[in-house]
Specification:
InterPro entries: CUT_dom, HD, Homeobox_CS, Homeodomain-like_sf, Lambda_DNA-bd_dom_sf. GO terms for molecular function: DNA-binding transcription factor activity, RNA polymerase II-specific; RNA polymerase II transcription regulatory region sequence-specific DNA binding. Pfam families: CUT, Homeodomain. The chain is an all-alpha fold. Among the domains are: 84 residues, lambda repressor-like DNA-binding domains (434 Repressor (Amino-terminal Domain), Orthogonal Bundle); 47 residues, Arc Repressor Mutant, subunit A (Orthogonal Bundle). It is built from 8 helices and no strands. The radius of gyration is 55 Å and the shape is rod-shaped.
Length: 217
Amino acid sequence: MPLYDLPKISLPTTIDIEQLSSQVHELLSSYSIGQRVFGEAVLNLSQGTVSEILSKPRPWHTLSVKGREPYIRMYSWFCDTDNVQKLLAWKQERDILRRSIRPTTKSQNHHTESNNKPTLKRRYIFTEDQRRRLKQIFESEPYPSQAKLEQLVDELSLPMNKISNWFHNARMRTKPNTYTKDTNKISSTPLTDNNDDDDGDNDEDENDDDDEDNTLP
């Protein structure tokens, strides 16, 4: 989007930046024109920079040549008699341009995403007669020879790879599943403990002591 077309005017030697900033700020506010639009169209600056130079103006003599450029453009715009109408027209044209670009971008992104999606392989569908004939051959010959396959190609008007795949899938479907189960038998043998107890008799000998009585005469 091109910048606002500023009129060619004679510039004064010195610009009262404080007064100019106040007048521009008041004019933008009265027409509800945002500082972002003013910065993009007239000054070619960001909204933050526009806000700073309008709220914190510096004396003209303290600015460098490059620092004076935004204020020169601001002064030229302010002196234009149709400045507000031109700026509003610029904003409207910018909005129309943005709206026209957005759907195209979304459409292109959607088209790109669609192209990036993997292509699904289409499944081949056999007719009833073809399927019936293949099943008939499969019952007697699950592993047909090459000659038999070539015969079926001519007979059924099918590609060789389709017929080979059909027999392969049919064998996989009818392949028996064998399950092996291990049975562990635990046998317990009763244990018998024979405890022989020997009983012993202990004989005790008792000694009788005879006590003699001594009689004193």
